[in-house]
Amino acid sequence: MSKRVVLFGASGTTGKAVAKELLRCGYEIVCALRSTSDVPDDLSGCKIRPGALVDVFGTEKFDVAISCIASRTGVPEDAWAVDYQANSDILKAAQAHSVRHFILVSAICLQKPKLAFQHAKLAFEKELSECGMTYSIVRPTAFFKSLSGQVERVRSGKPYLMFGSGELTSCKPISDSDLARYIVGCIDDPGRHNRMLSIGGPGPAITPLEQGEELFRLTGRKPRYRRMPIVLMNAIIGALSLVGLVSKRAAAKAEYAKIGRYYATESMLVWDEKQLRYDADATPEFGRETLFDYYAELVRAP
Question: For the chain, which domains are there?
Fold first, then answer.
């Protein structure tokens, strides 16, 4: 059993969950963080190494490297600096120091790339898969946190926002703890080595409309919806892109809007290239927690 693991991105939601799971499973773990200000309060038990990410390899020996890092904005400059270059630098340092296995947390939306961060992630996935090291590329479907932004809106009596009918897309979201168990399970499971691994949570795929319906049920509020037409979003993107030709700030806003439109129009499920459709049945499931369980916890919280 491999024991020494270096984890990148432990300050993020997924990284923190992976750190806790590694500790639970008995691995010796070092968290490489860019600064001491990134250290989460609840990572007691982990060794922390702040500073340049690749410096950690110069002082210690590791069997496995896990990268949960991701650009925070998704704009081209940030995406290529983090999703590609930072991961590439980590990989080269890991190879130079004889790390045997590299586990990457990526994203299922790379199946249909249209955005800068997707192309940056794909570029690194290709580099990793061709480097000769054992690898596992994990592509989660959707995260509970990203689908819970409207809980407080509904609790306070405001309408639930959605695009179109609310049935344009669907997903099988996976919880942080279930995803962490899956990621850590890649270490000693040969069936997850040298593979691209799409993974979702348990249960049927759910639409934004179904998410809204459940929130109204849990809060006891009368259902109220506010629908935004996709054509309006397209118009906003067009205007921002035009201004973005002369304004860096507007260009960034246009990219944010494009990211929003992508998630409003594309399902986070396995894409069937032959049938040209998303396939919920073909999307692997893992874990025990459901998004609606998580909603119930949030609604019960004071």
Answer: 4-143+174-199 (3.40.50.720), 208-300 (no CATH)
